[in-house]
Input
Amino acid sequence: MINMDNPADFVSQSADAGELAQFAQHAKYWWDRQGPFAPLHRINPARLDYIRSQAARQLRPRGGPKPLSGVRALDIGCGGGLVAEPIARMGADVLGIDLVADSIIAAKHHARGQGLPLTYRVASAEEIAEAGQVFDLVTCLEVVEHVVSPKAFLQTVAGLVRPGGVLVLSTLNRNLASLALGKIAAEYLLRWVPPGTHDWRKFVRPSELAAPVRASGLRVVDVTGLNLHPLSGWQARGPALVNYLMTAVKPGEE
Output
């Protein structure tokens, strides 16, 4: 288990201690739709639609009223459970992990009494990998841009996908558009997220995200932008200009 009082432990697990401290500062507001995580609440329906459609296409679960029934899922960097909890409502058996203990407390508190197939742990992706666990569906959303070594982290994450399983990632592209919109406008002009939430230099181009995933034996099957449309709101479609999602699959065993 990670010692949350020792920042050195964070670095050893690919995490940035300073960024984790910032998330810890706001952890009690995860489910406040008007709070510091309001942008995640706004984009969440589009992210969840994307995850559901990609999982259905690649895993072909039983479907029905709970479209992810029978799917074992891992949500890395789950925060307060904004993705893990809805995936569990879709029928998946979900493990949500995060290195910020206060976020896990908030996630457990929100899920309490709902009877969902959902477990939360303070743990790193490396710790889960060392335990030899693999999953049908692994999600890692808005996390890669906060880690110390994206390449090593992504290789670990890819190893958590079982043969025939699916990995869904999301992050921000690194270009002039993301500097203007994802950093300057979002943090300092529109105040969508607290100033200092992102370091633009750590944004990840799609080719940089895909390379270690492919090197780990997965096949990238989709890259889609997460874009704000004037009439329909946030949608997982269009170019990967600023925010984007990526799906990769691990070939099944022969």
